[in-house]
Amino acid sequence: MVGRRSRTLVLTAGAALAAPTATASAETPPGVLEVRLGEATCHDLSPLTATFPWLSAFFPGDLSASPLVRYEIRGAADGYVPFEVTVDGEPRAVGTVGRGGLVSAQVPLTNEKATEVVVTSERQALADRTYHARC
């Protein structure tokens, strides 16, 4: 009898935890994130990639003058809202941000070539900008 009761309690608790998550993502409309794309800036990443050689796969071209762009995503809705950052159609960052939360990071751009950075949430574009970086 004790085993049956604990199984019921665990299943009920599991259902209660799973339900708000599914409901929150379905009810949260896209566009409840504040997105800011910064200006392209040049950085010398050669010391970083010399220490961690596997990073060179993420930073193509001459690493002594690498263009990067900072993005900031702030949560403005209850619950967690998913986001994705793509550079020329390739995913570079995926995550979620909650109310009052902040995600601040940088993504590398292609030097001396037009590069498109897009931030989406639930397949809706929140920010889209093309950079022409020259370092």
Structure description:
With 135 residues, this protein is of the alpha+beta class. The chain is 24% helix and 46% strand. The chain has two helices and seven strands; from the N terminus they run H-E-H-E-E-E-E-E-E. The chain has helices at 2-27, 46-51; strands at 33-43, 66-75, 80-87, 90-98, 102-108, 114-121, 124-132. The strands form two sheets. It has a four-stranded antiparallel β-sheet with strand order 4-3-6-7, with no helix packed on it. Strands 1-2-5 form a three-stranded antiparallel β-sheet, with no helix packed on it. Strand 3 and strand 4 form a beta hairpin. The chain starts with a helix and ends with a strand.
Low-pLDDT residue spans: 1-31
SSE sequence, one letter per element: HEHEEEEEE
Which structural category do the helix and sheet elements fall into?
A: alpha+beta
Write down the Rg. 20 Å
Lateral arrangement of strands in the main beta sheet: 4-3-6-7
Span from first to last CA?
A: 71 Å
Q: Kindly state the percentage of residues in helix.
A: 10-25%
Basic shape: globular
